[in-house]
Design brief:
By secondary structure, the protein is mainly α. It has helices at residues 5-101, 105-118, 129-155. The chain is elongated and about 150 Å long.
Length: 165
């Protein structure tokens, strides 16, 4: 399709006008961005000067009440834990005993580990060879001292002091 010269001139002029308009809009949008940046900066300043002190006062006013509530909640939780600990420990112990009876030792071990981690059950103390040997030596020493005393008092009748009448 061929355009006449007149139409081409009109289209060029229209394209030129559209480009000028687009350039002007870019400039206007740039200025609008600067104005928005300045407005945000001023809003921050106003917030720091007027809103921040009010918020700080409100927080300081509410802080004691909130702290009392938190302290009360912690105290209540501790009381509940102290009251329920024996029941939970007994339930865990019964569960472990039952699992051991049905020979499910892995589950019993996991339940025992949970009870120890949460503090409801005391960790099981494992007897080691050193402790067993020390206990045996202690018993042997006590038996030796007892035997020596028995022999000493049995053979020497002179050691006994007779009560005077």
């Amino acid at each position: 399709m061929k355009l006449s010269r007149k139409r081409r001139r009109e289209l060029r002029r229209l394209r030129k006008d559209a480009q000028e308009l687009l350039d002007q809009q870019r400039v206007v949008l740039g200025h609008a961005g600067d104005v928005l940046h300045s407005a945000g900066h001023q809003a921050r300043r106003l917030s720091d000067e007027h809103l921040q002190p009010r918020i700080d006062r409100a927080v300081e006013t509410a802080r004691p009440t909130i702290e009392r509530g938190v302290t009360s909640a912690r105290r209540s939780a501790e009381n509940v834990r102290r009251f329920t600990a024996p029941f939970v420990a007994a339930a865990l112990t019964r569960t472990i005993r039952t699992l051991d009876e049905i020979e499910n030792h892995d589950a019993a071990k996991q339940v025992r580990g949970f009870g120890e981690r949460t503090g409801y059950l005391k960790p099981t103390k494992k007897r080691r060879a050193g402790g067993i040997i020390a206990l045996g030596l202690g018993l042997a020493a006590a038996a030796g001292v007892g035997y020596a005393l028995w022999q000493a008092f049995r053979t020497d009748e002179d050691l006994w002091v007779a009560p005077e009448n």
